[in-house]
Amino acid sequence: MSLKSYIITRIILALPMILILLVMIFFILRIIPGDPVLAILGGKAPLEVIEAKRHELGLDKPIVVQFFDYLKDVAKGDLGISTLTNRPVWSEIKDRFPATLELTIFSFIFALIIGIFWGAEAAWRKDKTLDISARVYSIFIYAVPVFWLGLMLQLLFGIYLRWLPVGGRLSPRVSLDIKTGLLLLDSILNWNWEAFWDVLKHLLLPGITLGLVISSIFLRMVRNNTVLMLSKDFVKAAKARGLKPKVILYGHAVRNAFVPIFTIMGMQFALLLAGAVLTETTFSWPGIGSYLVLKIKYRDFPAIQGTIIFFAIFVVIISIIIDIVNALVDPRVRY
Amino acid sequence: MKKFMIIIGLLLVVFSFASKDVIVVGTTDKIRTLDPANCYDYFSSNILQNILSGPVDYEIGTANIKPWLFESWDVSDDGLVYTFHIRKDAYFEDGTQIDANVFKYSFDRVMKLNGDPAFLLTDAVEKTEVVDKFTFRVTLKNKYSAFVSVLGYTVAFPVNPKVFPKDKFYEGAPSASGPYKITEWIRDVRLVLEENPKYFGPKPKTPKIIIQFYENAQQLRLALETGEVDIAYRHLDPRDILDLKNVPGIKVYLGPSPQIRYLVVNVKQKPFDNPLVRQAIALAVDRETIVNDIFVGLAKPLYSMVPAGMWSHEDVFPKRDLKAAVEILKVAGYTKDNPLVIDLWYTPSHYGTTEADVAQVLKESLEQTGVIKVNIKYAEWSTYVEYFLNGTMGLFLLGWYPDYLDPDDYLWPFLSINGAKSLGSFYENKNVEDLMTAARAATDQFSREMIYKLVQNIHAAEAPYIPLWQGSADCEAHDYIDGIVLEPTQIFRYYILERK
After folding, report:
1. Distance to chain B for A32, nearest Cα, Å
2. pTM to 2 decimals?
3. Which CATH architecture has domain B258-472?
4. For B52-156, CATH number?
């Protein structure tokens, strides 16, 4: 199979997956108790107003009709209007997504640094203290709930030591002209170093929390694959040639261990976006995760559906990109 | 080094001067919309009250209505036609003058779009007319003595026709006609208000107010203590408020609140269809423990649906009396051997974190009779509303925040047949309905007061709702902040805040 047909096949296979997800979300939301109109209006509005609102939102139509209406809109790229704020869901997602992306990129880089360096060094010193501590660390961190870890870091650095802010993205008194929504980037673009420092301080705790959790997976992957590579002949040959240990480890072993790790990292990046929900809630991070939690509370059907579809499409795109890159790197995967 | 110190010194001086012009207010509330036609939540209304001018306003610190955009008004002899005279010096921030056409546009738009608060106008208004450039006329469907009070709510605030579309809700920041205009708005993150030079009223004491949004009370408290915000307004937990009273440099303000909390009794459901059961529950509930132990004294026991401090309020419900409750239950056929078994419902997050404790205290207080057994149940807010509209729940906790400050808003929505249906008690009493209609038609306050007192007494005897407590408003601020007034109207005015 050529690379082109491989990519087309991957995209075609992704479509039914998103459709199934859409069907599930749509019907589950309508089966579970809770009505968006009632969640907004409560008992204060007269019954006629509640009925009128339900009619306006199309919630009085048969569920199947509602579904096909929704499907038509989604096909046109319209995710609907939030029942809570009356704003297009897409523009709300666009407002919120950069915050999640920034948090995800930061924690991903943090996790990569821990994962690659500690993992590689642990492999080099297999069964020594550094290796054992890496294995204990990865098991411990993997088992710890992300919100608990977040709360502990908040308590230590935010409340006891008061070094770092415990929530939000920017201090109230710091102003920043927002261009991309990625505040670190925006502060660099604006040449605003006060804002840069402030954004970085806000990013540290949630970024480290999320990064720590994900680092355990990277660490294990890098360690195990590097251990495997270190036993290969080309590594022995490199040693025989008298290359420096760092060059052998990073230039030969880790580099070759990276193909399977890359796939896992790509998927982890996509999952991180979804996993940011708990971190965002713990740290009042105004991203897409805390947006979803708020919308679930108000049974804002279009917003919940829109956000989940957005996540799904994002995960699919990332996984397709990984597949393409893998196919380019290793032709054996094109089957 | 010397140069460096001078620069730092200068920066500090500049910063200290600059910071005098800015006050940061932190909150855990959210803004849903800033379109008055669709705005029906407290915090959104509160922002609108600071950036738009209303037809009428309240005298600061009181619930007394004063003319504002409407300089004066005449009411026809039949009480149906209101002719309003508009002031001539009011403009929106883009220079558009506020005249009768603007009012007609705004009122008609609210009624056409039929947003969440529109019923406040559509229920009352028959038609609107422009008499001349500065005279606006409203004809009512029925006599409605509380109509001018309704005009104090943001649904009646005029909007700029050049900005707000006629046929759909507006999602942006409104064109200001009040003391502040919005210069930055990142939803759920922050809102920046700056002085509006086109405003006809007094200049704000602080030219810039930043409102910072927090997800939870703990973060808000920390932001206040670390100086990230100058003022915390809504909502810290009661115990945090009590703690902050002892923190040096922080001042806690407490004020009256028109928010009431009560138990709803579904009078169509067994065993609550028996008035004796309702009366026994009303006698057994322990309001004192709730306000003292759970709200650490930051709330007051309530013995009528009309809050204390509002005209016509009367303590009509009896104080706690377990013996009397047991006696009444005996008459109703319930004894220790044949106890009254009931479900008590609450909703866990809509009214804050204290709700589960309230339910527990209520359970214990009712069970102290020895004749009542209570099962506590709960449901998330959207399900909860569905349940009470369907009549699923027999006894449940609910709260009320007024749309306009008038006893009518504490009696009509609960006791009128339609109102009782939409609040889950399904109470019907033709006599009460007639009395309340008569009160709406009465033009003098004395007659209205007499009628409302009568209605409150009937309500206490029938007990379809059992008032429990009245909340208090609170605000926490650094002691260098002046101008915090917690008003009975709940309008929080940013334009009178200043740094000492």
Report:
1. 9
2. 0.84
3. Roll (3.10)
4. 3.90.76.10
